[in-house]
## 1
Amino acid sequence: MASFPDCVNKNDLDKAKFIGELLVSVAPFDQKSGREAWTVAFAPNGSYFAWSQGHRIVRLIPWTKCLRSFSVSAGEEGTNPTSPQRLSRQDSVGSLTVPLADEPREHTIDCGDVVWGLAFGSSVPEKQSRCVNIEWHRFKFGQDQLLLATGLNNGRIKIWDVYSGKLLLNLMDHTDVVRDLTFAPDGSLMLVSASRDKTLRVWDLKDDGNMVKVLRGHQNWVYCCSFSPDSSILCSVGAGKAVFLWNMDKYTLIRKLEGHHNDVVSCEFSPDGALLATASYDTRVIVWDHHKAAILLELGHLFPPPSPIFAGGANDRWVRSVGFCPDGRHIASITDD
């Protein structure tokens, strides 16, 4: 899974270049496996970058520090300042990248199990918790609060304070792998988790992580979930051909979108909420008008497109993920080819 910070300018896309590489230090017992990069995410304000390093480690890096490390390394080499640079774990604690006063600090987090999903969430104090019956809360989230949710192989979700690196909450109701996580964009700290236990669960972190609702309807593993920009609709996809749309005010199923010929593995709304893009193992990305349940566009990784009976991604064309650029006019997709 890949991620853009929200501050990306559409005019910069044509100028994209490789500026650096983040590497994990290699332990003697860790040569062959365990260092896979499963997922990455940018904080909503672009201040932090989170990187799942395989096994159980997540690294939280202040993004300005990361960029400065690349530029410093380029200057040291004295050759081509635009050539790609590498930042290893050892580099991150070197003398050239010591945190300045008041600068956010880097953290390495041991989550206790393999990390499958990452999501940042930020709080808006005036956005009250939906739980109105409890007056006392263990946590009081301020406007400057930034949280990281990690979905684990054992079904747990751990919530971390990004600035301190401390564990705040341990959510334990899922019974299988937590495959994906998404926070409501409205600052309410409502978190939705998608799991291989065939359910989606809604958590209210402003109510100390209370589980608000279990959304049932998927017959198999749930791979991905995504909020609409106004937080009113949730899309979820999984091991099946249907795309599920949920009303997040009533926690009810709105409709299923039919059109894919194989498992649907990724989904995302456009920044204005008008469009929905979904990616499937049938080698296609579909762009929907989800309000009318209409297919607007099909983007294929295989031409001619396979007939439904053969739409299994046989020729290394399984589409793994899809995402909108913040300008709303560009879509990126990743495939096995």
## 2
Amino acid sequence: RSSYSCCYFVLPCCYFDFHGKYSRRQSKKTQYREYLDFVAQVGFVCGFRVEEDCLRIPSTKRVCLIGKNRTYPRTERALIDKQITEYINNRQTCPVVTHDRRVGFNHKDQSDIFKEAGSELPENETETAGTIWMPGFQPREKVEQIRNCASLPRDFVDDVVLSVANLLLSAAPQKSCSNMNGGNTNTWNQGESLSLKEVAEHLNKETLKRLKSEYGGLQTLLKNNHQVFEVLNGRVHIRDWRKEKPSRKTKPEVKRRLSAEAFKTRLCWFFLHHPDGCSLPSESCPYAHGTEELR
């Protein structure tokens, strides 16, 4: 609708309509094929000769639709624009569209769709059809904000991690656990498990307010710090690396040794902050026990 001379290329992927998620209407087709037909129909209604092609890309959704030529002369642009506005309004109010064709619509096809929809274009829409395409439409920002807790300041994340870990460690008496190294039995505090709600109740209001602005909030932050925590069924645990299952992939000894050396790019949180240190000896821990082990 931006201009008569514009062309378009679209690679349909996620199933969305003008005002929300696309609702299926035909069970005889796959969801992907039905959605492709819908996107093609939008092009036809907007007065394009729609072509379909398949891209050479490594994806299951690689069918594209192209509109290069119009089906109406430039002099009819105002009329077609009104029909497009009506079509958009009907998509919002009518749950079912009866037409489903995979070939181009001529002018009769387009008028049939509008007549069957059975709604007149409101006066205010007629007056503003050329300037306001979709009332209330709010485009997303040009730069999409990252809200998965990954962009939070490192010192803020470290403070939350330390606070939650101390809360879990002090929530229960020290537990006696066997250390796998040499068969000796050492005491290593695994702490207690708490629900996300219980953890949140112990955090201050400013911290919670900051986390609520992120998708997933506290749970996402804790899952991002999987070296320290394990979140299962809404409960938070201190991760015990002695219980982690070794990789099933068998590697030659030389490759295994090299990959283990290259893996130590981060300091071990337990070595630095846990009152009992790390539950694993240095040679078995995937994280560095001190800066001298960093690669």
## 3
Amino acid sequence: EKRLFGVPLNALLENDQKLLPNTKVPLLLQALLSCLEKRGLETEGILRVSGSQTRIKSLEQKLERDFYTGLFRWDEVHQNDVSGLLKRFIRELPAPLLTAEYLPAFAAVQNIPDLKQRLQALNLLILILPEPNRNTLKALLEFLSKVVARENNNKMNLWNVSTVMAPNLFMHKGLPNKIPEGKEKQLAEGAADVVRMMIHYQDLLWTVSSFLVAQVRKLNESNSKRYQFCDKRIKNLLRKIHADKDKVEKNQAEPSKIVKVHASLLLKDSLEVHLNNATRVADVLRQFQKNLCQNGWNIVNTVNLIKCNNSMECTNLLLYEVGGNIGK
């Protein structure tokens, strides 16, 4: 449970969600990217200039010992070492971030001659990635875009960043090396070009395109027509059965007038909030804030991602509904 490098994304997220239930990107990756964004974006040659391999190995060991205790000091780490840890994290994943199944398809995208079709292919490939991979890739590409935006200071343009990051995404130790002799340079440039497109056009790659929506709608409509009943007597019978079932359930079910707010990092017990027709979300948040203040809450969680004091504004709180309907 303490390992951070060489661990499957699903396992990392499972551990992280014990601390922060809604975590979608590994906390270690978030911390690495946050550190680089704060102090590394202006560093000349960031990502390209290698840090000390001895220091990076030592930092890896310290992280696996101290990261979840909150004792690791990011402000004492050299930025080139942090970028080395970032590349090491991606490279050491047991399975490629782009997945072993789809990695050949990602690599083949650069063979499509038309730019629009290349982007459509990338869009489709990203949409079918497993959710942890897709969320992690999105966080990485957003950071790489910020690096490119500071090109004047860090001397890292789009092609530099793509060339440096491509091997970490496409050359995975767990995959057999089948590169034909003499093709190394061509394949490396092709992989870098795919990474370049993902960084440059990333805003287009996370949306479901209109033609896909139209196809799904058409498919649903055809399925709906296929199962329509021609016999009115059967439809009437089914309608009656549903009506009777709804009537019984309505009579048996007594609507609940209490919701429970769970915040395991802040409150030991669930906070029960009584509802009526006039209750608003702001009322729930206000009661939650009042309960926190009564308990004198003032903590820094174990991964230094939440920092608060006894003075708290309602605007700093967000209420998330998990499952069901807030009125039930």
